[in-house]
Amino acid sequence: MIILIQMVLFCLLFTAMVMYAVRGGAIDGLYFYPKAVQERAIDIGLITKETMQKKRKVFMTEFYIVMLTALVLIIGLWNRVSDFKTAYLQALLFLEVMNIYDGIVIDKIWVGHSRFWILPGCEDIPYVQTWGQVLKKRSLLAMIWIAGAAIVAGIVVFLF
């Protein structure tokens, strides 16, 4: 039961980080959009490519630090895990749940059903991923998280 609560809190933190990324409006998260939308937004002067890239670099750095720190603290401090196998399995579970949450709740539900994400002048360009795109991206990330979980587990074992 506690791990379920932890996963919910972890996904809420993920959502909070996305909200933080777009605190000035959807244009602040242009790097989340498909290339065609990015190019149109830049062409019509909503943002410069340099500004978009800077925002992406800053946010992604903050995002990885916050999410990694939270995951290490949940596993190592809250769950008191100190062995690699348990830390790895918990990290993999959290990362895969986050992956699915991002694809369904963030990409398909929030982005797909909220007017917030529609950029002026880009309304005619599809910006919501199709189910096929979501499945392809999430499958690739599922493989990446297999390695990512090992890194998290290594940090947990080192620290705790």
Task: Give a short overview.
By secondary structure, this protein is mainly alpha-helical. Helix content is 74%, strand content 0%. The chain has one domain.
Describe this structure in words.
The chain is an all-alpha fold and 160 residues long. It has one domain. It contains 5 helices and no strands. The longest helix is centred in the middle third of the chain and has 30 residues. It starts with a helix and ends with a helix. The model has no long low-confidence stretch (mean pLDDT 97). Keywords: Membrane, Transmembrane, Transmembrane helix.
**Would you report the number of β strands?**
0
Range of helix content:
over 70%
What is the number of independent domains? 1
SSE order, one letter for each helix or strand = HHHHH
**Which consecutive residue ranges, at least 5 long each, have pLDDT under 50?**
none
Oligomer: single chain
Distance between the termini: 23 Å
| Proportion of residues in extended strands | under 5%
- Radius of gyration from the alpha-carbon trace, in angstroms: 17 Å
Secondary-structure-based class equals mainly alpha
The DSSP helix count reads 5
Largest sheet, in brief, is:
none
Average pLDDT over all residues: 97
Transmembrane segments: 58-78, 140-159
Keywords: Membrane, Transmembrane, Transmembrane helix
